[in-house]
Amino acid sequence: MPTSLQDTTTLHNGVKMPWFGLGVFKVKEGSEVVEAVKAAIKHGYKSIDTAAIYQNEEGVGQAIRESGAAREDLFITSKVWNSDQGYESTLKAFDTSLNKLGLDYLDLYLIHWPGKNKYKETWKALEKLYKDGRVRAIGVSNFHIHHLEDLLSDCEIKPMVNQVEYHPHLTQEELRSFCQKEGIQLEAWSPLKQGQLLSEPTINEIAEKYQKSAAQIILRWDLQNKVVTIPKSIKEHRIIENSDIFDFELSSEDMEKISALNKNERVGSNPDEMSVGFED
């Protein structure tokens, strides 16, 4: 089990990925994202997760430069957006993201959503970027089991990561065991269900018992389930608090209580329905 913010999981290609990071979905470009990322790096975060569609890659890049952190100490993720799916357009989108970030390489590049019929072409582009050494690991986001099976049936390089909506109301048990079996690291976005889980009575009872916040209990549950997690926050005190989860362990009984809250309920789109507007 990870015992510090710097602890990593080893992806199936040997690359080490931090268990915990900062997500910047809906964090405004400019000073808001710059300050959030700088605060995270200052307090020991190594992993920052952005995406082309977030429109804040430039701010993330600025924060990285201003933080003074060595590039090789950081783990930077971005994602190709739906309208850029396809082989050539993905290669171009990657260049655009890299330029905005002001980096020479990415640590992880993901297909943001599966869509219907282009992700295999898109994946071929990711394989090329990987072989060319421009990205250290490649993966997908929001892929169900059937998308993964389809991709695995004829890809050359297996995805290293699948980043999905994952929290106590959406425990995705089948997907989690499928990914584990295939050696694909599961990663959680929206781990706190955009804050909706913070008032959940069961979680608050458990939080009281461990003298931790509801958010810390949920994030710890992620880690003990071997799921990488990237909560989003723009407040420095919250960025610090979110990462203060390495000094306690949830009992297996409490882990089960949290998992039992599952309702298969999403706060984001269902990947099978999120394909409007990007098939030709």
From TrEMBL:
<dbReference type="InterPro" id="IPR020471">
    <property type="entry name" value="AKR"/>
</dbReference>
<dbReference type="InterPro" id="IPR044500">
    <property type="entry name" value="AKR5G"/>
</dbReference>
<dbReference type="InterPro" id="IPR023210">
    <property type="entry name" value="NADP_OxRdtase_dom"/>
</dbReference>
<keyword id="KW-0521">NADP</keyword>
<dbReference type="InterPro" id="IPR036812">
    <property type="entry name" value="NAD(P)_OxRdtase_dom_sf"/>
</dbReference>
<dbReference type="InterPro" id="IPR018170">
    <property type="entry name" value="Aldo/ket_reductase_CS"/>
</dbReference>
<comment type="similarity">
    <text>Belongs to the aldo/keto reductase family.</text>
</comment>
<dbReference type="Pfam" id="PF00248">
    <property type="entry name" value="Aldo_ket_red"/>
</dbReference>
<protein>
    <submittedName>
        <fullName>Diketogulonate reductase-like aldo/keto reductase</fullName>
    </submittedName>
</protein>
<keyword id="KW-0560">Oxidoreductase</keyword>
<feature type="domain" description="NADP-dependent oxidoreductase">
    <location>
        <begin position="30"/>
        <end position="262"/>
    </location>
</feature>
